[in-house]
């Protein structure tokens, strides 16, 4: 799968576990204050969805079974896969990173049109054949989009 996701010219970063940066999605959706990831994460329905993901064992880890702490509460997910949410404070990679299911839920919370845009972007990048130079070409295209 292609790791680069660009929505409306905004590259959505991924962490080492493949989670997507909600802060980048927020910018891609227009960056309105009322749609800040913090407000969505405080939502009762969101908290229940995150809890359900934990109940099901988090994100299945790939070849490495590394543990990551939940974004609040210090809950350890060792041997359960990867935590569905992780917040990085400070540094170049700061932001809140979430699994694919939470990306869809966040996009749906923002608006139906943004939700469809995110789904279609995921479909496009997951169904496109990956070539050895595909990642480099996508990064160049993202640079052109951002410069244009």
Could you give a short description of this structure?
The protein is mainly α and 148 residues long. It has helices spanning 22-28, 37-42, 44-55, 100-110, 112-127, 134-147, and strands at 5-7, 10-12, 20-21, 85-88, 95-98. It comes from Salmonella enterica (Salmonella choleraesuis).
Write the layout of secondary structure elements.
Layout: E1 5-7, E2 10-12, E3 20-21, H1 22-28, H2 37-42, H3 44-55, E4 85-88, E5 95-98, H4 100-110, H5 112-127, H6 134-147
Antiparallel strand pairs: 1-2, 3-5, 4-5
Which segments are poorly predicted (pLDDT under 50) over 5 or more consecutive residues?
61-80
| Beta strand count | 5
Topology as a string of helices (H) and strands (E): EEEHHHEEHHH
Return the structural class.
mainly alpha
Helix content: 40-55%
**Overall number of domains:** 1
User: What is the radius of gyration?
Assistant: 15 Å
Distance between the termini: 26 Å
């Amino acid at each position: 799968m292609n790791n680069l996701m660009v929505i409306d010219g905004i590259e959505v970063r991924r962490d080492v576990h493949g989670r997507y940066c909600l802060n980048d999605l927020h910018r891609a959706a227009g960056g309105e204050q009322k749609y800040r990831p913090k407000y969505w994460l405080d939502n009762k329905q969101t908290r229940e969805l995150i809890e359900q993901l934990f109940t099901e064992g988090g994100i299945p880890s790939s070849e490495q079974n590394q543990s990551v702490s939940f974004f609040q509460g210090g809950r350890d997910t060792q041997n359960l896969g990867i935590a569905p949410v992780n917040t990085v404070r400070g540094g170049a990679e700061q932001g809140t990173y979430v699994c694919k299911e939470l990306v869809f839920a966040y996009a749906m919370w923002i608006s139906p049109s943004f939700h469809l845009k995110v789904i279609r972007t995921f479909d496009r990048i997951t169904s496109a054949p990956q070539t050895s130079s595909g990642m480099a070409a996508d990064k160049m295209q993202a640079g052109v989009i951002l410069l244009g």
